[in-house]
Design brief:
By secondary structure, the chain is of the alpha/beta class. It is 45% helix and 15% strand.
Amino acid sequence: MKLHNSYTNTVDDFTPIVDNKVKMYVCGPTVYDFAHLGHARCYITWDVLYRYLKFKGYDVTYCRNVTDVDDKILKKAAKEGKTPEEVSQYWYKQFANSMQALNTLKPDIEPFATKTLGEMISIVKDLINKGYAYEANGDVYFRVKKFSKYGYLSKQPIDQLESGARIEVGDFKEDPLDFALWKKDEKFGYKSPWGVGRPGWHIECSAMSRKYLGKTIDIHAGGADLIFPHHENEIAQSECANDCKFVNYWLHNGFVTINKEKMSKSLGNFLTIDELLKKYDSNTIRFFILTNHYRMPVEFSDEALTSAQAGVKRMLNAKQTKINEDLDITQTEEYKQFVEAMDDDLNTSKALAVLFDLTNKANKEDKDAFTILYKLASTLGFTFDKPTLSEEELQIAVKHVSEKLGENFGSMEDVISYRKTARDAKNWDIADKIRNALDEVNIVIKDAKEGTTWEVK
């Protein structure tokens, strides 16, 4: 298996530190607002890597943190008259719901920054004792120029970084490049050897990674926007504190763009996952993301999502047969092609081509094709379960049809019965109006000799 290592900027053979055990860390969310399509791309990408490593037989420990102490959280709390804890807890639940809706697996470990403060303080103390950090008026900064490899991950020479560095008003840095490990904050802070304060963002991941995975880990992943300064700073502080290599393989996914601009909250050009799921199901969103190589930018458009929706329907509508649990799919040609694609730096677009080939074979009565399709598609996180509606969503759909037809239907059964009466009377206009109204809420009507049924798109 080969993976593109951002640190070496080469596609390297993947070899775990210990036998077949893999320690994998992914930078998680700062919980203060809705997760958007950019987050979906990141977490679906690394969900696929997690699933595929396990599919290959690796014993994976996947850790993804939650940043629940941050300037953005404090700002939101002040604006809404809430405590930072109330804000972070509320938005973490929203994030968890969005991840579940996207069918991403829960990480094995999901630590919160505020629960790992002791580890952070310990690392900062070590860095001060070794001369890599210094306290200044309640803040603690890292001496960037003491770490000779600084800038290697982001491929930015130190003199290039210096030209754009500035000391902000209120900072007490020795050098403009130095970054904060600990920030003085007497209002919302925590006790520390340097007074009441809170951790800098970068130290959080170094501390949580070390506490739960160890000093050196196999894989550290995240969005390309984190390469500098976040991941660059993580390397500096971790390797200076631990006196060893921090990460063997650095992996980064590309941006999601709209009109060639990165999707982000700061630019105001983002679509939340919840908004997107009202129009497209999780399989469609996943397909859209996996059609593109994970390292490349993805341009969002309704046309691209509609195309992905058609691709998913084609695959999930393959003629289904009973899963043959006795079939050793590792001996099949399709399995070998799938593994070859995924082993080539997670070439998911080629892997999807294998799934389409299996779809065609399943539709041509190949007795084992659906079993292979099901198992390989599941490895990419696709689900063959028919989408369903909650009772609340169903009532909303029924209300929508009622308003469109000027009736007062109490249930979906009432809608179907009313439409049957209309069809029996050859009142095709009413029947079509009901079909169209249901289509607007993503419900498909299917008429057959046995009767009329409905299902979610």
